[in-house]
């Protein structure tokens, strides 16, 4: 069975897939950062939502990519996780 990285490496050989993956990468990075911070804190999605002053269903939509966060929401998440929000262009 292929690991996700191996699968992704194989898929990105297709130029159309690679272009779409690249376009969506910032969205995936935000989702991954939220999930990683939650795991680091060792808390449930409900606990994180409560800490951030939002509904669990709203957090779930963010974590599944069904909703895109505003900067205000990202700051709210950072505050609830005891993190600092950093936005940069590279």
Question: Would you give an account of this structure?
Answer:
The chain is mostly helical and 90 residues long. The chain has one domain: lambda repressor-like DNA-binding domains (434 Repressor (Amino-terminal Domain)), CATH 1.10.260.40. The protein has helices spanning 4-11, 15-41, 45-52, 56-63, 71-81. The radius of gyration is 15 Å and the shape is elongated. The model has no long low-confidence stretch (mean pLDDT 94).
CATH architecture: Orthogonal Bundle
Average pLDDT works out at: 94
CATH class group: Mainly Alpha
Under CATH, the homologous superfamily reads lambda repressor-like DNA-binding domains
Return the CATH topology: 434 Repressor (Amino-terminal Domain)
3D shape: elongated
Q: How do the SSEs run, as a string of H and E?
A: HHHHH
């Amino acid at each position: 069975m292929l690991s996700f990285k191996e699968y992704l490496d194989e898929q990105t050989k297709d130029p159309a897939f690679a272009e779409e993956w690249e376009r969506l990468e910032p969205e995936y990075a935000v989702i991954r950062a939220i999930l990683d911070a939650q795991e680091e804190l060792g808390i449930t999605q409900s606990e994180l939502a409560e800490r951030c002053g939002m509904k669990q269903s709203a957090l779930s939509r963010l974590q599944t990519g069904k909703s895109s966060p505003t900067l205000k929401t990202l700051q709210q998440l950072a505050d609830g996780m005891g993190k600092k929000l950093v936005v940069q262009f590279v």
